[in-house]
Amino acid sequence: MHFAYPPRKNSNPPPFRPRATQLPSFLRRPRRRTLVLLLLGAIGCLWLLFGSRGETQYREHVPSGNPPVVILTVLDNRQYSSAYLKSIQNNREQYAARHGYEAMVVKATDYNTGKSPRSWAKIIAMRHALSQYPDATFIWFLDQNAYIMDLDRTLEAQVMAPAKLESLMIKDWPVVPPDSIIKTFSHLKGADAALIISQDDTGLVTNSYVLRNGDWAKFFVETWMDPLYQSYNFQKAERHALEHIVQWHPTILSKLALVPQRTFASYGRNKEGNAYRDGDFVTPMVDCTISGAMSCEKLSHYYQQQLTTKYGDAGAAARR
């Protein structure tokens, strides 16, 4: 029996039918990518022109100058007598009241320094002052063991007026004496200086320095109090940390103005050269001790007596 062969299939396949979803030729892949990019670019331009107008752009806060100066002093209430500390506080408040300044006198125990030396509380307090007085023009840190001896002279007249500061600035000078290869900038202007400090024969004097308030000051203090520096075993804690920072961070060195030590840090009577003399602005008692014959409280009587002699009741107010 023979079966008929099935019909042969056509070897020519039918042509493809166009798909209903096929894009027009101008939207095919190469051109489609270009069109998408152009569309995104147009949307971005429209957003830049109209969408960002409602957002507040960042601007550095410019202090209004109210108050013009904050005098910051940190008291060690654990080791010194309350009578002595009261005389220090009165000295700051008396001076501040004469010139419309603010005296910020705080306790070291208000700040947690962890396992670091307690002297780091002074740097934490500076950050506190910058936060509490954002409109102050200057924050003047003055160590506990120091007296302002000329109550009539303003900080601006003594050092911070731009022309006065520029006349005092020691330029192109080793930051850490005697032979540091890192030197103060020679082109810095008085109006641009933000850290005003002096040096003695061993290094920077952190007993008395001035910060110009602003974003740079906040950056500087945050850098100074970095936990890495606080935990490092510097011989003189925050003082040596500062000397390290200014020598290795040009952003900080670029704002540092070095002034003669007697500008606002004349040392006690036993220091030659930069020793306190009658008429000096400020005297830190750097060699005094907590107790004994050379205690800060005993040495302070000499300076308190001078204030009383010169200012009468005003000086007595700083003595009570």
Reported CATH architecture? Alpha-Beta Complex
What percent strand? 5-15%
Weakly predicted, low-confidence segments: none
Q: What is the CATH class name?
A: Alpha Beta
The CATH superfamily title = Spore Coat Polysaccharide Biosynthesis Protein SpsA, Chain A
Instruction: Tell the overall outline.
Output: elongated
Structural class: alpha/beta
Helical content band: 25-40%
Mean pLDDT: 86
Strand order of the largest sheet: 2-1-3-6-5-7
The CATH topology turns out to be Spore Coat Polysaccharide Biosynthesis Protein SpsA, Chain A
DSSP summary: helix tally: 11
Q: What's the N-to-C terminus distance?
A: 138 Å
* Radius of gyration computed on alpha carbons: 34 Å
Tell me about the largest β-sheet: 6 strands, mixed
Give a quick set of tags describing it.
320 residues; alpha/beta; Spore Coat Polysaccharide Biosynthesis Protein SpsA, Chain A; 6-stranded mixed sheet; two-stranded antiparallel ribbon; 11 helices; 13% strand
How would you portray this structure in words?
- This protein is of the alpha/beta class and 320 residues long.
- The protein has one domain (69-317): Spore Coat Polysaccharide Biosynthesis Protein SpsA, Chain A (Alpha-Beta Complex), CATH 3.90.550.
- It contains eleven helices and eight strands.
- It has helices spanning 29-50, 82-99, 121-132, 155-160, 162-168, 215-224, 227-231, 237-248, 250-253, 296-311, 313-317, and strands at residues 69-75, 102-107, 138-142, 146-148, 195-199, 204-212, 256-258, 282-284.
- The strands form two sheets. The protein has a six-stranded mixed sheet, with helices on both faces. A two-stranded antiparallel sheet has the order 4-8.
- Strand 5 (195-199) and strand 6 (204-212) form a beta hairpin.
- Helix 3 packs antiparallel against helix 6 (215-224).
- The longest helix is centred in the first third of the chain and has 22 residues, at 29-50.
- It is elongated.
- The relative contact order is 0.12.
- The model has no long low-confidence stretch (mean pLDDT 86).
- This is Alpha-1,2-galactosyltransferase.
- Keywords: Glycosyltransferase, Transferase.
